[in-house]
Specification:
Blueprint: H1 6-50, H2 54-65
Length: 66
């Protein structure tokens, strides 16, 4: 039989849940910062390919997004 009390198990679960919440928060902030760079990259590709023509530029961006 386990030597841990129910209260000790609850405390371990709460500590693990708090650590997971912190990890999730850090991951979400990293995703937000990466999304900015991805968006900026798509804008650059769109502007560069726009010189080849508006329709061609839009097609290029659509292919990258898809």
């Amino acid at each position: 039989m386990s030597e841990r009390t129910p209260e000790a198990i609850r405390m371990e679960i709460a500590a693990e849940r708090q650590a997971l919440d912190e990890d999730l928060s850090n991951l979400q902030s990293e995703i937000r910062s990466v999304a900015v760079f991805v968006t900026a990259g798509l804008v650059v590709v769109g502007l560069v390919s726009w010189r080849r023509g508006r329709r061609k530029g839009a097609e290029t961006v659509w292919k990258l997004v898809k």
